[in-house]
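REQUEST FORM: STRUCTURE PREDICTION
Request ID: SP-0412
Submitted by: Lab K.M.
Chain count: 1
Length (residues): 330
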Amino acid sequence: MAITAAQLMVKVGADTSAAEKGLSAFDAKLKSVASGAGKLGTKLSASVTAPLVGAALVIGKAGVDFESAFTGVIKTVDASEAQLATLRQGIRDMSKELPASAVEIASVAEAAGQLGIQTDAILGFSRVMIDLGETTNLSATQAATDLARMANITGMAQTDFDRLGSTIVALGNNLATTEAEIVAMGMRLAGAGSQIGLTEPQIMGLAGALSSVGIEAEAGGTAISRVMVDIAESVGTGNEKLGQFAEVAGMSVSAFTALFEEDAAAALVTFIEGLGNLDEAGGSVFATLEELGLADIRVRDALLRASGAGDLFRKSLELGTAAWGENIAL
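STATUS: Completed
RESULT:
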């Protein structure tokens, strides 16, 4: 059927209107997409870009702080450029394994240099001190200072700090004392102990036993050190006190002398145990200490407490020696 001019005009108008509507909807879609893209960009800038910039600033500051801390290592450690590079990388690697920052580890390494720790032993030393700081009531720097000085007093090999740390932790875990008290007492006993031939675990074993019966390091350590020196002098010179020491220990003079020369710690503990048995044997602890010249109030108090502890000292020595050998407690 033929379409009139009027009908054609109406159809064209309808098609044009539909097209305009389609274009208008498309335009609205484009504006919506553009608006969404703008919002997405803003969100990305806030949630991704800004944190990345912040993280970069934090990382940058951490790097600056570490280099500043490592300057202290450079000042205290007598090392070549190659050795310093090894220390720098070793400290960074350690910070990824331990719950301590590279700055904290560098601080311990700096102290190690000041305390005379050999360059090749600094990383191992620092690891032990950080471990002690994390697992005991000692701070890493306190542990570093005290144990380095103890090693200097006793002549301990610098490869044995891990064994010393394990000994301290084992004693702290099993005795009525803390690691800080054990170390403080050990420092007081180290001089006399090393002079009479005690090993590092024996010194710490005695320190653990003494501190666990409430003897304070400053007074008690000095008192027990005096007893060690007096016994050593008697054994060395064969003076009149030697017979008294041997009698208290329940041994002949020759047997006590031989024991002391072979194992001074065992001889000391045997004497202390003998004091605890004097009353039962009909003797007098106070009179015996007077005769031995050990009636000073601090010495007497330390020995009375120690003698009343039964076999605590012997067990503590065994525990310390075993922990040193096993080297797993820390």
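NOTES: The CA atoms of residues 234 and 242 lie 5 Å apart.
Reviewed by: T.R.
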